[in-house]
Known about the structure:
The chain is built from nine helices and nine strands. Helix 3 links the parallel strand 2 and strand 3. By secondary structure, the protein is α+β, with helices and mostly antiparallel strands. The termini are far apart.
Amino acid sequence: MGGRLSWSYTDSTRPPGGGFSAPPSCSLIQTELPESNMEDVEHADGRLQDVDHVIHVMDQEAGDYQLLFAMDVCGYDSIVRMTHSDRRVSVGELRRDHEPLTDVLAEQPWMSRRTVELSPRSGEQAEGAHPVRRAREAMLKVRAAEVALQRPDSIEADAAADRLDVHVVEVLEANPPAGEEPVHWLLVTTEPIDASEDVWTIVDHYRARWTTEEYYKAIKTGTEYTSLQHRSAKTLLAALAPSAIVAHQLLVLRYLSRQGDDLPARVAVTPVQLTVLQSEKPDDVPDEQPTVEDVMQGVASLGGHISSNGPPGWQVLGRGWQRLVEYAYGFRLAMRAQEK
């Protein structure tokens, strides 16, 4: 992968062809592109040739006009968060006939609202347009429009078409808490926006990008996969299999712990693992009605987490989970020995 990541999701419930037709100049367009996500898009698409509908979901560092134009020419379906909200939209035949995208969207009615869970973002995770935030429920509203983006003046006329027909979805948080930046996304997509359900599907695809990001972090940091010293692709791939399973368990544990304080511990760990946690970390995991939140705190404590440092990261969760699995294995061996 290059310096910027491209996530790809599949959707077999809708027919392919959500994007625009690809003229034969696709290969030429690719050769004229500056360094971008395009290689990642091609690589992902090539590995998913048997999938009916592939959607490339990218964050705002991929929202430059040339990349959007290249993906359109090559027929790739996409959902991309826009880098700038001051894009110009063509509204006539001449280049001077344009309006700000924000003005065009302002003419569209808000379609519907929905409450979503926002995960916390620490100071270490915050950057650029991603400020620090607390976990909260957010009421989001959406509207959408079909527009023709105008080629920015900074891009030469022979490098991209003068206009690009796209669908734009605006997502805005209604009534954010005091002191919190409201959620505000502009998503450019080839996906249909005919109905409210279509628009929310686009939003959900974009939101799923964060889960994918966190899963990669859980593999790399939580299981310490990137510190392995294997030299061949075969052994690295073999090691990835158990790492992927552990990372999934960590991801589920953290997700469930954020769904409320009343989820019982048994939905996240086995009875033996719960017994071990209650024995090793009684201050974190009580005997009476332990919850998933208690389990996560116990696992983090096993990994050396200090509560004053804030929420546990993948490294301490991974270390704690490894110790929990080892302790539970030893517990089962001891029980078998007693039975003999």
